[in-house]
């Protein structure tokens, strides 16, 4: 499997982190992307050990949503994110990925300003620790946990906050200005999440194996590489299509599809 491909544990059946580490290693990926709660449940030191012993790197640690809509939410969100940064450092994670949190009744400009103010101490802590902290675009159906849905908005907000950009292609592949936004993100890109979409799928989660659908990966991946990005391409294939095929078979096929694209741009 290509050295830049990692597997997000969201792809895998529910299990202990140790079992999922074994599965990712068996599939042949070099990196794994667990969730914070998985690591805490398994134990931070034990998580670091089993991942290291399996020969894997932590591509990113998923923090899920930040929060900023109220003062109390902001205080709690900062404390939780600072703890996540500590866990990420202990497990050797390359980055921490999150969504912004919802805006409640705030207008978008007010929400953006509030997010930047709220996350600034955590952004400073991440830089001091040499950690990439990033936000990702999300479907508008997840507006309760994010205020950025287009990649261009994600890039603009991340830059204002002094943090990185995680490109979830499933969320933003149809943006009219996608390649412009990729170029604008440039060196701020810290991770790329890869899956596909098949026309006609309506209910989430409905991600497909890369190469099976409409996402123009043969154009988008070279555009990302042209920015100088040389980090992880994280498989995040979720939903009934992968389950029906067989998770390990589908992820192996996804990696086989991506490998030639990655080799042509590196």
TrEMBL record:
Keyword Isomerase, does the record have it?
yes
Q: Which SUPFAM superfamilies match?
A: Xylose isomerase-like
Checking Pfam families in the record gives: AP_endonuc_2
Q: Name one GO molecular function term.
A: isomerase activity
Q: Which domain of life, per UniProt?
A: Bacteria
- Give every Xylose isomerase-like TIM barrel domain span: 21-249
Q: Which UniProt keywords apply?
A: Isomerase
Q: Does the keyword Protein biosynthesis apply?
A: no
Question: What is the protein's given name?
Answer: Sugar phosphate isomerase/epimerase family protein
Taxonomic lineage from the root: Bacteria, Pseudomonadati, Pseudomonadota, Alphaproteobacteria, Sphingomonadales
């Amino acid at each position: 499997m290509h050295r830049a491909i990692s597997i997000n544990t969201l792809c895998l059946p529910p299990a202990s982190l140790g079992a999922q580490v074994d599965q990712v290693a068996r599939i042949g990926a070099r990196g794994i992307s667990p969730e914070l709660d998985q690591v805490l449940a398994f134990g931070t030191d034990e998580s670091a050990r089993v991942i290291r012993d399996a020969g894997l790197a932590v591509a990113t640690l998923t923090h899920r949503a930040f929060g900023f809509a109220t003062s109390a939410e902001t205080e709690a969100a900062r404390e939780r994110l600072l703890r996540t940064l500590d866990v990420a450092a202990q497990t050797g994670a390359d980055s921490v990925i999150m969504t912004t949190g919802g805006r409640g009744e705030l207008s978008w400009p007010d929400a953006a300003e509030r997010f930047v103010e709220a996350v600034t101490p955590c952004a400073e802590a991440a830089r001091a620790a040499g950690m990439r902290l990033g936000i990702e675009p999300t479907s508008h159906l997840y507006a309760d946990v994010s205020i950025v849905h287009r990649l261009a908005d994600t890039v603009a907000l991340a830059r204002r906050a002094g943090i990185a950009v995680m490109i979830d292609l499933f969320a933003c592949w149809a943006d009219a200005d996608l390649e412009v936004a990729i170029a604008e993100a440039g060196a701020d890109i810290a991770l790329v999440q890869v899956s596909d979409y098949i026309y006609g799928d309506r209910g989430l989660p409905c991600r497909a194996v890369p190469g099976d659908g409409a996402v123009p990966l043969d154009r988008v991946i070279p555009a990302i590489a042209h920015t100088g990005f040389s980090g992880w391409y994280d498989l995040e294939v979720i939903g009934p299509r992968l389950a029906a095929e067989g998770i390990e078979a589908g992820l192996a096929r996804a990696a086989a599809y991506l490998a030639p694209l990655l080799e042509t741009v590196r």
